[in-house]
Design brief:
heterodimer, A: alpha/beta, four-stranded mixed sheet, 49% helix, globular, B: mainly alpha
Chain lengths: 337, 309
């Protein structure tokens, strides 16, 4: 009697094992895209469009899987063996890591696709509370005492590095600006940062959901999305006088596509991002399109800002990384005090 | 987990009841008792009751329709399936291991026994994130076995096997920890009797040892299962976060939350909470049917019986 009741308790577990095992079979062509945090909505849409396009072109049924996380963390996962056919990350430095640490792609990867392998761009803008109670208009207002600035940790977040460099670039462009005055300015800015989250999404949640801080430094697409999701009655966007041109790069991962035999479809996947259809989807998700026609169509969404590039002001990402974000770089000097 | 502990504590408090009835306490003590009870209840409501209410009210904040849609979403279903699959592999393996280990520890003397007990506790002692990283360092592309696995096209990291491994590691001690005291308290007398009556080793285990420990075992399995389904840290490190493939329920909750999908996030979270509540209900049911389990001492009662005979 007792023995039977005991067996009865274990039986469902066994049945669940079998049921779960049976549903695990898979087939067809699959592609894995390892991307950074804010592109979730973009690629959800884009994957549907590309799968349909690929079906009409080749007849293959394509399933595209997505993995999202902080840009640096995603690069690390791919190096550790995450079988991503393509990476679509926040900055070239993280893709460079695939060359340096994993030898997964050739070092000429950035020349393989147009526009530095960045099919869309973005920039850094401010998100403030409704009515802009602290009257934040430009970078200079961020260092005023009593202004809480929310930005993630540049050590872990790609977006945060763009924020940091944008602030630095602003300080350089001020009359008499130089490296010392820029570091002074950025130091004052970070003194106003109450919480350093590890990723861009975490910072958005801190600002919008938890209500901490007066201004969020955010990707333009993230800010536009947050404004749409949260409603215009809660937050509004402030466009500073100058910002940085963020070029999120894409690349196939050669070692993975060659092993899996997915090179053709992976290359097609990235090239389609440059097509009018791909550009249109990017623009709909608040990424600035490269295609001039699509850009003209969405001109009202993206205000004109004076945009500086990492190459012009900071001599490229490798140098920017070494000067500012490596151990002992300017960020450590500022934050470690 | 915590809920289980606190519930355990309230049961422990019940235990003093008969004592108190026999001897009338002084008035000062009574006030003290009341205060303690109030503090305990306050904590319960604040730290366990409130979050539960929040989870369910948030989950249903946009109505039943959104709730069902969130759970019927293909990615959510995949996460549920994966969670069940992982638990269905991790829990039975830990059951076998736990029984074997506690049997060895409780019934036999051998060198290195205390080392084995310490090892069993290791997964409790290290942070789950470290548990995950161990597997990355072993099976990751640049880890010890990574290149060999890659050559033979065997996927462990960022795939289901890695998640199963990490979960098994983290939930390793639950069954063994539950059984060791039970088995130690029972001693070897029953087994020795069986053996002297001519039972084989297997028969002794199956007909004598196992029936003696079954309630403790079921209890350990329940706790193990709850943790296996709820584990976040270790799984997060080894999962690779591929939607619909390697996201378990806790990871899916995080994703939904980060996508501003609060109602859906809490809907999936409420499923996990329901699971925890069911585990607790199962645990209470066990205790109700087997009151001696309440004090974690099958043994005490058995030993008094033995002393009498």
């Amino acid at each position: 009697m007792r023995k039977r009741s005991w067996a009865a308790a274990l039986a469902p577990t066994l049945m669940l094992t079998l049921a779960a095992g049976a549903t695990c079979a898979a087939g067809a062509v699959t592609l894995l895209n390892a991307s950074y945090d804010p592109t979730r909505e973009l690629y959800e849409d884009y994957n549907k469009a590309f799968a349909a396009y690929w079906k009409t072109r080749t007849g293959d049924t394509l399933t595209i899987n997505q993995s999202h996380g902080g840009s640096g963390k995603q690069a690390r996962a791919v190096i550790d063996g995450l079988p991503a056919d393509v990476v679509t990350l926040a900055l070239a430095y993280d893709v460079d890591a695939l060359v340096k640490r994993g030898k997964l792609i050739p070092d000429t990867w950035q020349a393989r696709l147009p526009d530095n392998s960045s099919p869309y761009t973005s920039t850094i803008v401010f998100l403030v509370r409704k009515g802009n109670p602290k009257k934040i208009k430009d970078w200079g207002d961020l260092v005023r005492p009593g202004v809480g600035v929310i930005t993630p940790n540049p050590k872990t977040s790609g977006g945060a590095r763009w924020n940091y460099l944008a602030a630095w670039a602003y300080a350089l462009k001020q009359p008499g600006g130089n490296a010392t005055s820029a570091q002074q300015f950025v130091r004052k800015l970070y003194e106003n940062v109450p919480v350093l989250d590890s990723g861009a999404r975490g910072s958005t949640v801190t600002f919008v959901e938890r209500g901490i801080g007066d201004v969020l430094l955010a990707w333009e697409n993230e800010a536009l999305l947050a404004a749409r999701e949260m409603g215009a009655d809660k937050v509004e966007i402030v466009v500073p006088s100058i910002s940085i041109l963020a070029e999120p790069p894409v690349s196939i991962v050669d070692k993975v596509v060659d092993r899996r035999g997915t090179r053709a479809v992976a290359e097609g996947y990235l090239k389609y991002l440059y097509s009018p259809q791909g550009q249109e989807i990017a623009a709909r998700h608040f990424y600035r399109p490269r295609d001039l026609k699509v850009a003209a169509k969405y001109a009202s969404v993206f205000p004109k800002i004076l945009l500086v590039t990492v190459n012009d002001v900071f001599g490229g990402w490798t140098q920017a990384q070494a000067t500012h974000f490596a151990d002992g770089g300017t960020f450590d000097q500022i934050y470690g005090k | 987990m915590n809920a289980a502990r606190v519930l355990g504590a309230t049961y422990a408090a019940d235990r003093t009841e008969p004592l108190h009835l026999r001897r009338r306490p002084r008035a000062g003590l009574n006030v003290m008792r009341l205060l303690l009870i109030l503090v305990a209840l306050g904590f319960l409501v604040l730290f366990i009751g409130m979050p539960l209410v929040v989870v369910f009210s948030q989950a249903l904040s946009k109505g039943w329709h959104t709730y069902v849609a969130a759970i019927a979403d293909p990615n959510a279903l995949a996460a549920i399936r994966l969670t069940v699959l992982v638990a269905a592999i991790a829990v039975p393996s830990n059951l076998v291991f736990g029984v074997a280990a506690s049997w060895a520890i409780a019934k036999f003397e051998f060198r290195g026994k205390s080392a084995l007990i310490t090892l069993i506790d290791l997964p409790f002692a290290v942070s789950p994130v470290i548990s995950g990283l161990i597997y990355v360092l072993l099976f990751g592309a640049s880890g010890w076995f990574g290149p060999w696995l890659m050559e033979h096209d065997i996927r462990i990291m960022f795939a289901v096997p890695g998640i199963v491994l990490a979960t098994t590691f983290v939930t390793f001690p639950f069954v063994a920890r539950e059984l060791i005291p039970v088995m130690q308290a029972q001693g070897k007398d029953d087994e020795e009797t069986a053996l002297s009556l001519g039972a084989s080793g297997w028969q002794t285990f199956w007909f004598v040892t196992l029936p003696n420990i079954r309630w403790g075992l079921l209890y350990g399995v329940l706790l193990c299962n709850a943790r296996a389904m709820g584990e976040f840290g270790a799984v997060s490190v080894v999962s690779g976060h591929i939607r619909g493939l390697t996201n378990t329920m806790p990871l899916h909750v995080e994703i939904l939350y980060n996508e501003y999908n609060y109602a859906a996030a809490f809907a999936v979270a409420s499923l996990l909470a329901l699971l925890a509540l069911m585990t607790l209900a199962g645990k209470s049911l066990l205790e109700w049917r087997r009151p001696e389990l309440k004090y974690g001492a099958l043994s005490a009662d058995r030993q008094t019986k033995r002393g009498m005979t």
